[in-house]
Amino acid sequence: MDQQNKTQTPNILTPEQTQDLFAGLGLEGISDEKKQQMMDTMIDTVLNRIFTRISAVLTDEDEKMIADLELRPEEENAVYTYLAGRVPNLDAIAQEEVNKLKEELKTVVSTIKEQVTKNQN
């Protein structure tokens, strides 16, 4: 998947999952702009992990179709919808990767908070 051709990061999380993610990280109070920046980065990370896991079942034709769909920002979830038709357990894979990233981020945020607290004392 060519990240440079991407015009928009597709949204693979429901609004509830997004809210839960920020609440779980203790970051619900940050600005919407910062949340969007973080979401873009997190979604790119999750998408890369998903594509790594499913790349074995994708054909060259699939990759061409995905590249074409990425160029259509008006079709926000087109890539995910296409992949869901090709990979029967895509939702489960996506949820696993979201959960993994969420746990990794919790660890990072916790470590940062501990360091800040330690430095303030």
Characterization of this structure:
With about 120 residues, this protein is mainly α. The protein has one domain. Helices cover about 70% and strands about 0% of the residues. It is built from five helices and no strands. Helix 2 packs across helix 5 (about 90-120).
Structural class per helix/strand content? mainly alpha
- What integer is the average pLDDT? 81
Q: Main sheet?
A: none
**Radius of gyration from the alpha-carbon trace, in angstroms:** 16 Å
Per DSSP, what share of the residues sits in E-state strands of 2 or more residues? under 5%
The number of E-state strands comes to: 0
Q: Kindly state the percentage of residues in helix.
A: 55-70%
Q: Which residues form runs of ≥5 with pLDDT under 50?
A: 1-8
Q: What gross morphology would you assign? A: elongated
Supply database-style keywords:
69% helix; 121 residues; disordered N terminus; mainly alpha
Itemize the secondary structure elements and their pairings.
Elements: H1 15-24, H2 32-54, H3 60-70, H4 78-86, H5 90-120
Nutshell version of this structure?
By secondary structure, the protein is mostly helical. It has helices at 15-24, 32-54, 60-70, 78-86, 90-120.
